[in-house]
């Protein structure tokens, strides 16, 4: 963590907080839910030591990034999010057309896929974790698909009603919320029955931390969650329907940047309806024609960049060194 610098950049109506270290080609790291720049702490230090400039923002609605109207989920579309990144890149690079390396996880991967699709002129190469590309589906948006597959208690479905999940999570302190999300290590979905909290871990259940997650780490995540609240992060789920409506014109579009994808074989995303077949059966490669490698990491769950930090570091550097 030593040597990581923190800055605030005025972009797209926001005050975006970034953490950065190193000099050289820029690597932009994009975090997921319910996380922060801090999720990339291991990668920032490692890539900087390898001669790269590692930059990790708190995305819109998260952490120390301010200015987003968290009470209006319509201001969190993928178009807003990609716009934030283009503005950020313009602000922190000397050449406004500079191509950069991008590494995303979870929602950060979702945004990175769309950055690569909308603006391939700004992406040198892409490494995405846990969340494969999801092409526009004429059958409906992801909320509809997950509701049909898993019912009303699935967490994505439960996240849709503004204020509802916030009220339920208010029963717990921020550290407990962080622990229950980050330690989830099952291949099945997260259920959140109404009025009952996390199905996999009752409110008062003691959570044992894995070796890769310390009490200090939990405390850092929790301190920023207390400051920013959880609505910003939940808005990414609430806007899924609107994203689907706005993205119909991108039906059939491809991500045309060199790409590597990594997922854990115990990641809940890997077991979502149709996901394994899409990843392994040729659909993924059709939509991302420059997909060079898919890595299914044994024994790893969803928060793979923290759980398997050393392996992820090596996968990233081995791929981006090609360019």
From TrEMBL:
Family recorded in the similarity comment: Belongs to the AB hydrolase superfamily. Epoxide hydrolase family.
InterPro entries: AB_hydrolase_1, AB_hydrolase_fold, Epox_hydrolase-like
Entry keyword set: Hydrolase
UniProt EC number: 3.3.2.10
Reaction it catalyzes: an epoxide + H2O = an ethanediol; (24S)-24,25-epoxycucurbitadienol + H2O = (24R)-24,25-dihydroxycucurbitadienol
UniProt key word Transport: no
Keyword flag Metal-binding: no
Name assigned to this protein: soluble epoxide hydrolase
MF-aspect GO terms: epoxide hydrolase activity
Protein function: Epoxide hydrolase involved in the biosynthesis of cucurbitacin and mogroside tetracyclic triterpene natural products (e.g. siamenoside I and mogrosides IV, V and VI). Cucurbitacins have cytotoxic properties and exhibit deterrent taste as a defense barrier against herbivores. Mogrosides are nonsugar highly oxygenated compounds used as high-intensity zero-calorie sweeteners; they also possess pharmacological properties such as regulating immunity, lowering blood sugar and lipid levels, protecting the liver, and acting as antioxidants and antitumor agents.
Domain of life: Eukaryota
Residues in AB hydrolase-1 domain copies: 25-148
Organism classification: Eukaryota, Viridiplantae, Streptophyta, Embryophyta, Tracheophyta
Record pathway: Secondary metabolite biosynthesis; terpenoid biosynthesis
